[in-house]
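To: structure desk
From: M.T.
Subject: fold request, one chain
Message: Could you run this one when you get a chance? Sequence is below, nothing fancy, just the single chain.
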Amino acid sequence: MSYSAIGSRRMSVPVQVGAVTVGGGAPVVVQSMTNTDTADAEGTARQTALLARAGSELVRITVDRDESAKAVPYIREKLDRWGLSVPLVGDFHYNGHTLLNDNPACAEALAKYRINPGNVGFKDKKDRNFAMMIETALRFDRPVRIGVNWGSLDQALLTELMDQNAKSAAPLDVREVMHEAVVQSGLLSAARAEELGLGRDKIIISAKCSEVQDLIAVYRLLAARCDHALHLGLTEAGMGSKGIVASTAALGVLLQEGIGDTIRISLTPEPGGDRTREVIVAQEILQTMGLRAFAPMVIACPGCGRTTSTVFQELAQDIQSYVRGRLPDWRRDYPGFETLQLAVMGCIVNGPGESKHADIGISLPGTGELPAAPVFIDGRKAMTLRGENISGQFKEIVENYVKGRWS
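Reply: Done. Structure tokens follow.
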């Protein structure tokens, strides 16, 4: 399925970030961010590699001090040695102008710079510091993301808009004024970058908020008032299911309306948790919406009183893990396999029907049913599995199907 099958997509000016195209009708790009100390070049390169191998097409790294800036070229070198061409995005706040100016090797190693207009300085310094960063982008022919954040909004702009609103004959709600401030911060900064010589094909805008309705409102305004490529993300989404649900609720609405060229799911990781989780969630949002295909989908029923055995749950989990483990080899050998759909169903009620809709489906016996599991391939019953090794037999069927269809 493509965007055209869902709704008209907002067309934006394409931006080239390394070998990755953002906007202009290109597939929505998945990105993530490391949480290592960038000064630790080895640790940051390792985490970047994990994110890239999980499917992150852009990886952002913090560049907050001189030691971090000096480590960036080494991180790039390590990734190149490992055969990973994933573009690196430098995240700058407060002192980015100085770091980029003093560390040209860092500026060159990065594929894109993220500039937060609320954190580049105040009054005259703000314009000078911003100009320095844009000049560096021009010197190294790099795109920038104008990254507005609700939590670090330009206070001078917000105060000005609040004062204007107070004097208005029909004042807006305070939250609406804040929405306008976020949008104007991005648009005014992008316009200033263009005045300094940066082409529109070098500018991406983001306008992140931490509340779902605020994010939707802001991006609708932004999308209606510019043709810049847009990066979507609910900032500070939270931990676990809360962060996943909030991000999905916000981004699902916007993507359905054709808004968004690149996304990040900003999950708070559990202590020692897997950073790649945010990449997988981003991929699953896009794939379940029919916007992209990253990996085979395993459909499984939720279970009910007809499925008191845990066999189908264990098989669904086993097959999901098996598919994840085979991704690197399948990506290398069988292009196109990402569209594969598997169904692992628990009883006769929906089992055969769902199995017929999948490329390969298995309907396991529910409570009181005969101990047999019919397997359907391309909509037709192909065989019936029995015995203690149904999982192994089903994996072999999947493997042979992938080889036969996409070799």
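Reply (cont.): The first helix runs from residue 41 to 54. Let me know if you need anything else for the meeting.
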